[in-house]
């Protein structure tokens, strides 16, 4: 490009360079000869007047009214009164409501249940539409130790080897609405623990806490199926959330038995797909063959801030908008594994004194990831750090309460801070 | 209200084509005007790349195109030399059309600081950088606040700041005399004036006109007043106006998110010209709330800033300069403003580091740019001679690609095969990312290569290789 002898080539060569120069960066053109009768350049700079560095902007010197071209005699003497009437934007459809956990009289043993979903509009956009259910926070418990950043581990030392105690701490100390038991031990590449052993861990957790419980598998489509089926039967009627079923299970022909076991014993299912709405819809359609749609949640994948959070954000915005517009395959409540934030090295690595201690950087990473997806419509969050959990709870309750901003002059302008 | 303008997604290439010279001259770099029109409506080219239309004989067509393609949210530039452009948005949701003009982040300097403090703070603001996927993220603007209310003092503070940096400035005070003192010093830098309010709009409008500077219309918590102010300033002949609907922490957070959303919806969906202007978010406001510790204020400021960036802020003023408050904003801004249609990716294929011999390690990674640049910098800093096979994962990170099955045994086997690595090394051991450990067995079967599972984070590559390379042959 740019080597044609005609003027257009030269213009192309110069155009961006000149724009660059105008934006204050220095450029050097070498071996360029100009031999033109007339050269006219028009440089677009974002709709703003062009200023050359070092030269005064045309209108910047205190100028007589005539020089500014503005006739002050035409100015209003009083503030002109305008009104503002937001145009309401009703959505034709709503997100399904799913209740997790079952109390004694409902056939389970939970002290309370939680309900997610039910949204009628994108969150916090219309003060006239009240959010039906607040976002739910489930805190993680792992049945097997694994490498964890210090900022996460520091509050877990007492409980790290005891899933039941860990679950109890999540609920009693940090107020978790739910607990997720991640059965990493079942992974054939780790301990390959048997489904029976896994079921015993779940039983311990169910006895330790009375909140609804989420069962996290190891990601192996065959092993997870065995584990989920075992646990579904053991915890008959508890309305657990099985996290998760995948397209891999469909390929491994284990989707049907898992879905049928979950249905028979009254549990809910989380369908997980990787950042792709078409696969999410397809997996949901497959599940509808064996499982009631009103007990399915979707995980569309949560990527850490800095590692592609924007993809997760946009896919959730698209899914929620499509669901509210009437796409029944995307009307499932969604969950976010917000704990994934910690896979970003910015969350845990020592970056030098300028970037502060990971004791703050880690939890703010988890917090910002969660809040971003809360704005995109996610209903349920799997979280880990107590500070991130309390901030999520605090911010979401303020957003839901919908307090109006009181008219006032901005006090930050002259505040001593 | 005038007939509603077409949204960027409703403009067809034909609408643009009709107004082009239609000579298929190819000067824009594509073969014909129709192809160019398509690029323009997709946001891949700007009309000024059509050099013939800049000729005066096409003046009318050019003006019509500019009108047709003008974003519903006006773009406003302030500063000279180094400038900041804000607004310029076409849509509400980023999947509709890439967000333009990432919001500049301004850090405050106040006039109650002494000379040494001011110099140090400006130095810290301009020196704040973070290397991220081959780019340098940094802060953009300095907001000078008048805390003392003393015009002379404000003037000397502005002078000092202006001497220390060529970053664009925002001059902040409700007092027109104070603002005038700042403009007398730095008016030729075209700073953004904060702010015209219900009480001072006449004097502030006068300053904006005299010094030719853009101005913020501030009506915290009152959208009706905000529209009235814009209308009034416009009737004074001012066109470059920035909106401050107010940022409130605490109980006002819901109202803040709602105001930002209502303004942007009015502009993008309902074509409201008075709200078709950039929005200023001021997370710095949390510092004036209830008595909290510094770290609590930083914490609140950090998440408030990210919420506002997600909810349409086009410019942010912050107080904290702590790395852990600012870094997530810079990284989230980078992500939010990438083209959602194109994952940030690098070309797949083989990369060579140092001068690898026949027994050099072979590593696998994804073609997501962040992953690649991170692995690259870790390999370089550990000074490893090796081969890195970048697998086409649709621009997804290893973790997401494994979950979504964009990275699987077949793809790895194909990438190994196509790279010709077999001819380069005498061994058959390949190092898989720790986050793809799950694929080990299948990959061994599909590729015939032995798998060594690498660290979950590439910062551990050096250590792994020191301790475990070359692999023992019995394994």
What does this structure look like?
The complex is a heterodimer of chains A (417) and B (475). Chain A is an alpha/beta fold. Chain A is built from 13 helices and ten strands. In chain A, the strands form two sheets. An eight-stranded parallel beta barrel of chain A has the order 3-4-5-6-7-8-9-10, surrounded by seven helices. In chain A, strands 1-2 form a two-stranded antiparallel ribbon. In chain A, helix 4 (163-172) runs parallel beside helix 5 and helix 10 packs parallel to helix 12. Chain A is globular. Chain A starts with 6 loop residues before the first helix and ends in a 16-residue tail after the last helix. With 475 residues, chain B is α/β, with parallel strands linked by helices. An eight-stranded parallel β-sheet of chain B has the order 10-9-8-7-6-3-12-11. A three-stranded mixed β-sheet of chain B has the order 13-15-14, sandwiched between helices. The model of chain B has no long low-confidence stretch (mean pLDDT 93). Chains A and B meet through helix 1, helix 10, helix 12 and helix 13 of A and strand 1, helix 7, helix 8, helix 9 and helix 10 of B.
């Amino acid at each position: 490009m740019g080597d044609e002898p005609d003027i257009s080539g030269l213009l192309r060569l110069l155009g961006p360079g000149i724009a660059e120069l105008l934006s204050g960066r220095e450029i050097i053109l070498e071996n360029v000869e100009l031999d033109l009768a007339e050269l006219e350049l028009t440089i677009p700079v974002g709709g703003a007047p062009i200023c050359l560095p070092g030269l005064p902007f045309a209108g910047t010197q205190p100028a007589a009214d005539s020089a500014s071209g503005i006739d002050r005699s035409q100015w209003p003497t009083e503030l002109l009164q305008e009104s503002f009437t937001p145009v309401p934007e009703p959505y034709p459809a709503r997100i399904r409501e799913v209740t997790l956990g079952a109390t004694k009289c409902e056939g389970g043993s939970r002290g309370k249940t939680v309900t997610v979903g039910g949204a009628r509009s994108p969150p916090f956009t219309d003060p006239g539409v009240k959010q039906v259910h607040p976002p739910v926070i489930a805190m993680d418990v792992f049945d097997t130790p694994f490498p964890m950043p210090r900022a996460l581990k520091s509050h877990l030392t007492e409980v790290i080897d005891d899933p039941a105690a860990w679950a109890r701490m999540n609920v009693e100390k940090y107020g978790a609405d739910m607990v997720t038991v991640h059965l990493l031990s079942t992974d054939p590449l780790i301990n390959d623990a048997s489904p029976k052993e896994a079921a015993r861990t779940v039983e311990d957790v169910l006895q330790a806490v009375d909140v609804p419980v989420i069962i996290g598998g190891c990601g192996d489509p065959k092993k997870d199926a065995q584990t989920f089926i075992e646990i579904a039967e053991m915890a008959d009627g508890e309305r657990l959330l099985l996290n998760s079923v995948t397209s891999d299970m469909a390929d491994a022909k284990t989707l049907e038995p898992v879905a049928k076991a979950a249905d028979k014993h009254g549990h809910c299912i989380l369908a997980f797909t990787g950042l792709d709405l078409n696969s999410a819809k397809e997996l949901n359609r497959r599940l509808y063959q064996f499982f009631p749609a009103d007990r399915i949640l979707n995980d569309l994948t949560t990527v850490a801030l800095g590692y592609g959070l924007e993809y997760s954000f946009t896919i959730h915005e698209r899914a929620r908008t499509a669901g509210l517009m009437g796409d029944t395959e995307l009307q499932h409540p969604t969950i976010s594994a917000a704990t994934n934030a910690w896979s970003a090295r910015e969350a845990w690595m020592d970056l030098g004194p300028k970037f502060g201690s990971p004791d703050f950087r880690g939890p703010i990473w988890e917090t910002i990831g969660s809040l971003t997806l809360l704005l995109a419509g996610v209903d349920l969050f799997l979280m880990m750090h107590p500070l991130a959990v309390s901030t999520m709870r605090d911010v979401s309750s303020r957003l839901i309460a919908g307090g109006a901003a009181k008219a006032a002059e901005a006090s930050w302008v002259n505040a001593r801070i | 209200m005038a007939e509603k303008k077409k949204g960027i997604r409703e403009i067809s290439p034909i609408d643009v084509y009709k107004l082009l010279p239609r000579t298929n001259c190819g000067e824009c770099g594509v073969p014909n005007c129709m192809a160019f029109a398509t690029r323009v409506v997709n946001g891949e080219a700007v009309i000024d790349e059509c050099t013939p239309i800049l000729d005066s004989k096409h003046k009318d067509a050019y003006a019509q195109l500019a009108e047709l393609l003008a974003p519903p949210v006006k773009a406003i530039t302030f500063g000279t030399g180094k400038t900041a452009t804000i607004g310029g948005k076409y849509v509400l949701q980023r999947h509709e059309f890439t967000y333009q003009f990432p919001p500049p982040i301004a850090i405050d300097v106040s006039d109650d600081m002494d000379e040494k403090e001011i110099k140090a703070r400006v130095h810290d603001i301009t020196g704040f950088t973070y290397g991220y996927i081959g780019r340098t993220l940094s802060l953009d603007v300095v907001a000078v606040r008048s805390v003392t209310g003393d015009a002379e003092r404000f003037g000397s503070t502005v002078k000092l700041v202006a001497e220390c940096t060529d970053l664009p400035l925002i001059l902040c005070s409700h007092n027109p005399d104070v603002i005038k003192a700042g403009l007398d010093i730095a008016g030729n830098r075209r700073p953004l004036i904060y702010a015209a309010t219900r009480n001072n709009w006449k004097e502030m409008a006068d300053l904006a006109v005299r010094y030719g500077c853009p101005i913020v219309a501030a009506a915290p918590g009152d959208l009706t007043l905000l529209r009235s102010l814009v209308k009034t300033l416009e009737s004074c002949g001012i066109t470059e106006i920035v909106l401050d609907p107010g940022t409130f922490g605490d109980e006002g957070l819901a109202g803040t998110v709602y105001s930002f959303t209502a303004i942007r919806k009015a502009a993008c969906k309902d074509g409201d010209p008075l709200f078709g202007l950039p929005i200023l978010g001021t997370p710095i406001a949390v510092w004036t709330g209830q008595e909290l510790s510094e770290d609590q204020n930083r914490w609140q400021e950090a998440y408030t800033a990210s919420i506002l960036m997600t909810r349409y802020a086009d410019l942010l003023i912050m107080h904290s300069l702590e790395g852990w408050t600012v870094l997530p904003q810079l990284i989230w801004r980078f992500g939010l403003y990438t083209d959602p249609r194109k994952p940030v990716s690098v070309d797949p294929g083989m990369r060579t580091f140092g001068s690898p011999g026949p027994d050099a390690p072979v590593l696998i990674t994804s073609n997501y740019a962040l992953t690649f640049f991170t692995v690259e910098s870790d390999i370089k800093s550990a000074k490893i001679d090796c081969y890195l096979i970048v697998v086409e994962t649709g621009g997804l990170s290893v973790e997401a690609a494994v979950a979504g099955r964009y990275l699987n045994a077949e793809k790895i086997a194909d990438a190994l095969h196509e790279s010709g690595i077999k001819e380069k090394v005498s061994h058959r051991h390949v190092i898989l990312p720790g986050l793809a450990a799950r694929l080990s067995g299948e990959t061994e079967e599909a590729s015939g290569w032995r798998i060594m599972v690498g660290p979950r984070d590439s910062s551990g590559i050096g250590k792994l290789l020191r301790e475990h390379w070359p692999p023992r042959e019995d394994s």
